[in-house]
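Troubleshooting log. The previous structure file for this entry was overwritten by mistake, so regenerating from the original sequence record. Sequence copied from the archived sheet and checked twice against the printout by T.R.
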Amino acid sequence: MYIMSKDMAGPWSDANLRLLGDLALFGSQSGQVQQVGNDYAMVSNIWGHEWTYPTQLMPAHEVDRQLLLPLSFADGREGVHAHFYPSVMYKDVEGVPAGQAMYGVQAGRILSQGQPIFQGGFGDGRETDGRYDSDGGWSPGQPERLSILGVNLTNALTPDQGYKITAVELHFTTVGGSEMFYNVIIGARHKGGRPLDDSLILGPGLFKMVPGFQHYDVASAAGSATFHEVRFYFGQALKMDGHKAGLCAALAEVTIYGF
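Regenerated output below.
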């Protein structure tokens, strides 16, 4: 949360702290706010020095990391939203117009927003509504078998349209932000395909068992093929000590990028 002023001497905004949203869904802790031109970005921190599970793959100092999250202000600057992009560009030029000093580069079009969930979830589309809110997230739980969430990328106007998939993001409502993870497998399917026809675009493995929010670049795994459906297979939720998590994270938003 924050208050704001044009000058250190004040006047400051009213005593009611204003909300800076989304950081919990990025598995990170708020940090310094940097200004570039007329734009702002939060340098948030994901702590991993207590993350003991993948030590055979990477030392703790490589698990600690930062996310640069560009900020956008709501009308009247009554609220702030944080955004993640794989690449953030900026213009270091005098007199840059407002809103043009910093800009994010997405991994492709957002294919999932507003698309129906055909398996798992709450059934009301909240997992793909584009709102990174933390209320009422769907919990895969601790399934003995894989728990599945399926997203349909087609609609009534383009029922036969397939898409190349470039990246996937999963936003969880984790307590404290970065203490646990799901071992997630992601498969994509052509229209009319059978379960055994899934193309594996993100397989299991310790390489992705790091704390906090993850943006999965799957362009090379997906290749040039086009797909109509994406399925997420959730395995056990594990804590940073490698044991099963008693309080499981809830899935707040799925974002699928592509063309």
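The two ends are 36 Å apart (CA to CA). Archived copy saved in two places this time.
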